[in-house]
Amino acid sequence: MEPDPNFYIESPRLFLSHFIAENPKHCQHIADLYFPSDNLLERTEMETPKRAQAVKKAHNFITGRSNRLLARLGYGFFLCSLKTESNKLEDAIPVGVITLIRRDDTQEKDEISYTVPDVGFGMLPWARGKGYATEGAQAMIRYATETLGLEGVLGFADSDNAASRRTLEKAGLEYRGDRTLGAFKGDRSGVYALPGMGDLKEYNIADDP
Questions:
Q1: At residue 48, does pLDDT exceed 70?
Q2: Lowest-pLDDT range of 33-47, 49-63, 130-144, 187-201
Q3: Of 87, 100, 83, whose CA–CA distance to 18 is shortest?
Q4: Which domain holds residue 141?
Q5: Alpha carbon distances (Å) from 137 to 41, 43, 122, 143, 173
Q6: Residue 37's pLDDT is what?
Q7: Domain assignment present for 49
Q8: CB atoms inside a 10 Å sphere around CB 72
Q9: Distance CA 143, CA 50 (A)
Q10: Considering the domain boundaries, does residue 209 fall inside one?
Q11: Residue 135 in 3-state DSSP?
């Protein structure tokens, strides 16, 4: 699947869309979100070497990992944007990223293969605490189950990340315990799943030994 500039998933306040490497706004947003030390601290009216470097990193991220996941699975990283009065995708304001990633497709060596993807989210600092992550995650879960026909969706949150745990629960996922996860190099994480998914061993999420 190729990135489509006209594709979007819609919720009451948000659009979720493909990242387009040729769109400067998309590259700038990835730079703001993922490379802030190179970018946000260098905010001036003039172009700076660090700012240019951050945008280049963002462009490479979109053409690399983001586009590879989309081509292989049909999902991956989605731009999360806030609607404006025009209700047009091109006028929407980027606020974050919503992800749908299956953990055998991150190309990590010896990574555990989970059979369904997990939903994730990241918001710019000024966009946090407004419910955008919850709304975006809900829209992504609906898209995954109703449009893509996936049999389940997972969610993961660090044991000490109370905000992410609340977001996953508000998005409709159930807490299934803290577990040591092979796909995260043995780190301990809270595991969440859609209601009705049953024994998570069926999805290669093993119980702690």
A1: no
A2: 33-47
A3: 100
A4: 8-203
A5: 29, 30, 10, 10, 10
A6: 64
A7: yes
A8: 12
A9: 37
A10: no
A11: helix
Neighbouring-strand partners of residue 192? 155, 175
pTM of the model: 0.91
Residue 19 lies in a domain: yes
Task: Report yes or no on 208 lying in a domain.
Answer: no
pLDDT in tens, 127-178: 999 999 999 999 999 999 999 999 999 999 998 899 999 999 999 999 999 9
CATH at residue 119? 3.40.630.30
φ, ψ of residue 179 to 5 degrees: the values are -140, 155
Rounded to whole angstroms, the Cα distance separating 165 from 100 reads 17
Considering its fold, how many domains does the chain have in total?
A: 1
Strands 154-158 and 188-193: antiparallel
Q: Could you report how far apart the first and last alpha carbons of the chain are, in Å?
A: 39
Residue listed under structure tokens 């024994």: 199
Contact 52, 39 (CB under 8 A): no
- Would you say residue 199 has pLDDT above 70? yes
**Alpha carbon distance 57, 159 (integer Å):** 30
Per-chain mean pLDDT for the chain: 90
| Torsion angles phi and psi, residue 94, rounded to 5 | -60, 130
Query: Read out DSSP for 53-95?
Result: HHHHHHHHHIIIIIHHHHHHHS-SEEEEEE--TT--GGGPEEE
> Are 152 and 193 contacting, i.e. CB atoms less than 8 angstroms apart?
yes
